[in-house]
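Subject: Sanity check before I submit

Could someone independently write out the structure tokens for this chain? I want to compare against mine line by line before I put it in a report. The sequence has 134 residues.
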Amino acid sequence: MTEEKKKWRNLTRKDKVKIVSIFAAIISIGLIGMAYKQFMRFQPQDYTIGTVTKIWKPIKGGTKVAYVYFADGQEQYGNVDLFGFEQVAKPGRRFLVSYPEQYVWEGVMDLSVEMPDSLPLPADGWDERPQFLK
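---
Independent answer below. Compare away.
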């Protein structure tokens, strides 16, 4: 029998319940986060243009793109994974941002849809994906 198994068997029932509860809480938080993102994706969306402000690398995880966009007259900020778009996403470039109508702070930049500089920022966003992108 290995040392870990001996240690596990020597734990009291109360300690085992605590350990299992901690793992269950961590898994639950992850599942709730995933469900929240799915909920936001299926809300009615508006669209606008966002500008990449910087490319950065957090302590853990892959490289991120920080961006800014305007929705309902307010400046909103977000981050999105850079993976697969290293050659396209550069500071100052503009991309399509979709955001839920009721939760404008939850916008997501789509790095696969670059917006031309000649296109003006929509004052109140677009209610549907612009025709020239369909």
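---
OP: Matches mine. For the report I'm noting this point. The longest strand covers residues 45-56.
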